[in-house]
Design goal:
The structure holds 2 protein chains of 2 kinds. By secondary structure, chain A is an alpha/beta fold. Helix content of chain A is 39%, strand content 14%. Chain A folds into 2 domains: 199 residues, D-Maltodextrin-Binding Protein, domain 2; 132 residues, Periplasmic binding protein-like II (D-Maltodextrin-Binding Protein, domain 2, 3-Layer(aba) Sandwich), CATH 3.40.190.10. In chain A, helix 3 links the parallel strand 2 and strand 3. In chain B, helix 4 runs parallel beside helix 8 and helix 20 packs across helix 22. The N terminus and C terminus of chain B are likely disordered. The chains are: A alpha/beta, B mainly alpha. The interface between A and B is large, with 62 and 47 residues.
Chain lengths: 355, 571
Amino acid sequence: MKSSNVSRRDLLIGSSALVAGAAFSTKVLSAAPPASAITSQLIDAAKKEGKVVWYTSVDLPLAEKVAKSFEAKFPGIAVRVERSGAERVFQRIGQEYASNIHAVDVANSSDAAHFIVWKKQNLLEAYLPEDVAKFYPAEHKDPDGTFASFRVWVCIIAYNTNLVKKEEAPKSFADLLDPKWKGKIVKAHPGYSGTIMTATYQMQRDLGWGFFEKLAAQNIMQVQSSADPPKRLALGERAVMADGNEYNIFQIKEKGGPVEPVYATEGSPLIVGPTGMFKAAPNPNAAKLFCNYSFTPECQQVIIDIGGLRSMHPQTKEKEGRTPFKDIKVMKDDPAAVEKMGDEIKAHYSKLFHV
Amino acid sequence: MTTEMSASSARLGFGFDASRPVLYAVAAVLCVLIVLPLSWLLLYSVTDAQGHLTLGNFYRLFTESSFYDPLVTTFIIATTSAILCCAIAAPMGWLVARTDLPFSGVIRALVTASFVTPPFLGAIAWELLAAPNSGLLNKVYRALTGAEQDQHLLNIYTLEGIIFVISCYTFPYVFVLVANSLDRTPGELEDASSILGGGRWYTARRVTIPLVLPALLAGGLVAFLQAMTLFGSPAILALPAGFHTMTTKIWSLFQYPPKPELAAAASLPLLVLTVLLLRAERMILGRRGYSVVGGKYGAPRLIPLRRWRWPAFVLCLVVLLNPVFLPYAALFNAAFSPVATTFLTFHNATLQNIHFVLFELSAASLALKNTVILGTTTATVGTIIALIIAYVTARQAVAGHRMLGFLATAPIAIPGIVLGVGLFLSYTRPPFVLYGTLWILLIAFVTIALPSAYQQLQAAFRTIHPELEDASRILGATRLRSLWQITAPLLRTGVIATWCFIFVGVMRELSAAIILFTSETKVISVLIYDLNESGDLGAISVIGLGMLLITFSVVIAVNRIPGFGTVRFRT
């Protein structure tokens, strides 16, 4: 993690902004742009463009809900959601930009490391929504104003309440290695999911690869997206999920689904999903408007209430019945390290799990 | 003789023989379609990430178990599926075409239905049915036997499960080839056998079966190659099962950072194997080609099944439970029930999935539009190209026709996903910057459709004796004119069937599309794959059923399905 040259240094400053509680350099190389409010000029310009293309890895029904709430507030601007796993979103944008195709307006990823790469490649527009400037804590916004934490959540264990009694449920990652769970665990894949990528980094750092080696011997069911294990759990296809989105579990549970979250005693991996817009956005004004809207208390309350996500906007309210964010023991996130170690993590994982 | 003919007809003033320019143009198109991406693949397979020449990719391929294991798995899957397909489809094809099986038209239509079902959709439906714990069939099993919660009858997430699902949606290839060939086999040869004292079964054994053998072998081969290069079903079932096939392995090599050089190397064994198999087929068949449609033959004879008529019919229906009835029921259940694998009742029925797809899923309408545009254009362009090539090779019209035939068959050996990469490499740089447009998908789909379209039409040509064309040529028509006036009408059914084949193929295609799509050029198959990734099974079911509806409407509108399902009332 030594800064050997200027660009790496930029990178570190950009990334460390996301590291909660990290003691990072206060020296800011370039100032953030002035904060921008939603003005009537911006709305008019956006309406002329008429649409915005949002690449995201957030669970699809929620993404469409956010899109619909935007369309209701700003009629005449259609949002097209392009949803797939974060690693595939990243691959897609890379592939498109390499061929000079600029289709994406706004991106939201569950692997914060992607924003480090995009920023390094000078693809991101510096655009600072008013709410981000005024309300978001420093560790949740890029000092250069190219991205901020649209959503925060944890990657958790959960179980199906029809199949597992509360007192028998696992309480920690170590519990998952109990032979009684053999063949009963579902788990997502770091090669497709940004959440799992981030989580795998934190878990191998804190628990060691030995944990995954033993988990691989548990005959797990491997799926791709971190949104999938909660759904398999709800179907009753497996009794326990080793990782997956807390927010999907909330959604299912609050609709009466038979699932229950578990916050592992070792700590749950912390996932941060930033949003930012691209310099070459085909609909630049609509992109700005959408970015800006994303961080308003209104939109943030939507992702909390409907989505089950956590918000860094202090004006939002947590929903009753969910464990407050401050009471959850989380592992420390480190997007810069994920950016560096990503390939290694995928390779090691594939070796252990054979897929 | 050919040249003399053209020369003489030109002299006689019946018009310029435009066949040559057309043929050379087609050859040029084929070269661009196939040689270009293949060259890029070859080049990539022998270079490392820095662009230096190396054989290191192949070394890794055959020494690292992460590459070697999928290769073996793929071979097992392809072989077993091909055998299974032949074992089921050949008797069914015979029952439908040559016996007095009741409602044979219905059976044909149901086989069409399984052909029209995209394999990835079938795989998802079978997840709903036979996932070990949540699968509907396993729930029924537990309810009936009182078995424990963690006991199951079926587990789709296994090698056997994948072979089963692949066979479900590959056997129609064999069925169609066998049934069509039997449809065309003339009664005269069998009559001759009967007149000479051969009984019905003797005739079947000594005349009919040998006549249909080329079609069966071709069918087995197509099934093998389909199973080998299929991406959709393994992509959905192999990952949860915890192993890779060659195609899913290759797909995983395109995860960031992409390793196209390894993917290219990994696809070459598949290419080599296919070439060898095609050669082997030719050696086995030797010169055993049969011209069975001439100017003077009659309709085939039907074998009475007597008391076996209804048991045979029921047997066919039982077979068709697997690719059609059960999966469709599962999709229907998932589309309207609140949780995908909860049994639908009047009390829990919901329209939430339909509402989501119609009013919330913002990518759906564009994907639908793209798919329909691509389906119709690919089918039209592909049929025309395949028709020309089939003619050239069947009639050996120009020097180098073998090469054309080989080029047209070659894409079958290239997994769609690898072709996708080859095309991606070819068409993302000047002078052809097509990535991001529908054109690149059109090229991919035409290339993928070409082998089976070509083989189908070539088979159709082979059964039409050149004597009819020759008669036309002798009377002074040019090659193109005799083609248009004599051959084309005889081929009409075959051509329409090929058009439908390609259209359906586009609906089924996922593997190349998943590399080549952009957000503006997404197709329905990719949309379904994306939905599957995050486990939105209800939405998939709605889109899947809608997609089947569209496919059926188009296929029925175009032709009332000759070759498959024209309900033929026979007595």
